[in-house]
Amino acid sequence: MTANPAEFHSTPNVPRPSAASPAETRRLVAYSKPILKMFPPTSEHAAKVTMLTVYALMIIAIVFIILREFGVFS
Predict the structure, then answer these.
(1) Where are the alpha helices (DSSP H) in 1-74?
(2) Where does the pLDDT of residue 32 fall: very low under 50, low under 70, confident under 90, or very high at 90 and above?
(3) Shortest CA distance to 64 belongs to which of 56, 74, 73?
(4) What ranges does the record give for the region Disordered, renumbered to this chain (predicted)?
(5) d(CA 52, CA 42)
(6) CA 65 to CA 71: how far, in whole Å?
(7) pTM of this prediction?
(8) What is the mean pLDDT of residues 48-74?
């Protein structure tokens, strides 16, 4: 037996989707929730500033390690 992907496999007590009749003029639109911001803009700005600060400190540390390896700070 081969499975047909176009065939619906129904579950008991669950109605099967039916195609809209040609006389029906309404379009079915998927329900979507509004996109809510998780944090206020000031919090997002603070997070960006913090991450940029962390990246800057990482770069400074890497440059310091490289200079120390070449004997600049002996």
Answers:
(1) 41-69
(2) confident
(3) 73
(4) 1-22
(5) 15
(6) 10
(7) 0.45
(8) 93
| Cα 16 from chain centroid (whole Å) | 31
- Which residue would you say has higher pLDDT here, 39 or 15? 39
Domain assignment of residue 22, yes or no: no
Instruction: Specify the number of domains making up the chain.
Output: 1
The verdict on residue 69 lying in a domain is yes
Query: In this structure, what DSSP letter does residue 64 have?
Result: H
* The token pair that represents 72 in the structure block: 């600049």
- The answer to the question of residue 46 being in a domain is yes
Contact between 67 and 73 under an 8 Å Cβ cutoff? The reply is: yes
Farthest CA pair distance, the chain: 87
Report which residue type is found at 5: P
**Secondary structure letter of residue 24 according to DSSP:** -
Please list, in sequence order, all residues whose beta carbon lies within 8 angstroms of the beta carbon of residue 8, skipping any fewer than 6 positions away. 16, 17
